[in-house]
Design a protein that fits this description.
Layout: E1 3-8, H1 14-25, E2 28-31, H2 32-41, H3 45-55, H4 62-74, E3 83-86, H5 92-104, E4 109-115, H6 118-132, H7 139-153, H8 156-162, E5 166-170, H9 175-190
Parallel strand pairs: 1-3, 1-4, 2-3, 4-5
Helix pairs in contact: 1-9, 2-3, 4-5, 6-7
This protein binds BIS(adenosine)-5'-tetraphosphate.
Length: about 190
C-alpha cells in the first residue's frame, strides 16, 4: 500500500492533482475539505459550526478531524492500493495523530509539497471563486487562509523532512507539468514501500 500526503497552501492544486493521481494510479482519495463541505451540505448543527469556521478562512478544530481520519483508515479494504490524503494533516497534532494511526496499521505515507508563489495562489482562488460558489474563495478570506497556512500548516513540512519522507515539487507550472513531477516521485518512492 502506498500513501501520499498532498500538501500545500490553499489553491496550490491539491484537489486538482489528487484527481489526476487517482486516475493514473488507482489510489483512493480522502479530501478533508470535501468531507467538511459534505457535512455543511447536510444542514446539520455540526455543519453550521463548520461553515462558520471555513467561511472565515479558519481551520476546524483538530478533534473534529481526528474522528473522520480514524474511521476512514479503519475501514480501508485490504486490497486497497493506497490513499491520497488531500488537505490532511494541516496542524502538527494532526500530523502526529496520522503517524500513530498509520503505524497501528503498519503503513507509511510520503509527503509531496506543492510549492506555489503567493500571487499565483491568490489569482487561482479568485478565478475558482467565480464558479465554485465557495464562501472562502474571496480576496479577504483567501489572504487569511494563506496566513493560517504559514502559521499553522507550513511548519509540519519539517516534521516529514526530519523523517526523510518529504518531497517538494514546483507547483507554479501547468497542471500537466506539475503532474509529471509528482509521477516521478510516486514511481520512485512507491518501489521502496
Ligand atoms: P481544501 O478543500 O483542502 O481546499 P484548498 O486548500 O482551498 O485548495 P486546493 O489546494 O485543493 O486547490 P485546487 O486544486 O482546488 O480546504 C478548504 C478549507 O477546509 C480549509 O481552508 C479549512 O478551513 C478546511 N479544512 C480542510 N481540511 C482541514 C483539516 N485537515 N483541518 C482543519 N481544517 C481543514 O486548486 C485551486 C484552483 O487552481 C482550481 O480552480 C484549479 O483549477 C486551479 N489550478 C490548480 N492547479 C493549477 C495549475 N497547475 N495551473 C493553473 N491552475 C491551477
Amino acid at each position: 500500500m502506498y500513501n501520499i500526503i498532498l500538501f500545500g497552501a490553499p489553491g496550490s492544486g491539491k484537489g486538482t492533482q489528487s484527481q489526476m493521481i487517482v486516475e493514473k494510479y488507482g489510489l483512493k482519495h480522502l479530501s478533508t475539505g470535501d468531507v467538511l463541505r459534505a457535512e455543511i451540505a447536510t444542514g446539520s448543527e455540526l455543519g453550521k459550526q463548520i461553515d462558520a469556521l471555513i467561511s472565515e478562512g479558519n481551520l476546524v478544530p483538530d478533534d473534529m478531524i481526528f474522528g473522520v481520519i480514524e474511521k476512514y483508515i479503519a475501514q480501508l479494504p485490504k486490497h486497497c492500493k493506497g490513499t491520497i490524503f488531500d488537505g490532511y494533516p494541516r496542524t502538527l497534532p494532526q500530523a502526529v495523530a496520522l503517524t500513530g494511526l498509520l503505524k497501528k496499521y503498519n503503513m507509511k505515507a510520503t509527503m509531496i509539497d506543492l510549492m506555489v508563489d503567493e500571487q499565483l495562489l491568490i489569482q487561482r482562488l479568485i478565478e475558482r471563486g467565480k464558479v465554485s460558489g465557495r464562501a472562502d474563495d474571496n480576496l479577504n478570506t483567501i489572504r487569511h487562509r494563506i496566513a493560517v497556512y504559514h502559521d499553522q500548516t507550513e511548519p509540519i513540512a519539517h516534521y516529514y523532512l526530519r523523517q526523510g519522507n518529504y518531497f517538494a515539487v514546483n507547483g507554479n507550472y501547468s497542471m500537466e507539468d506539475v503532474f509529471m513531477q509528482i509521477c516521478r516521485i510516486v514511481e520512485r518512492e512507491s518501489k521502496k514501500s
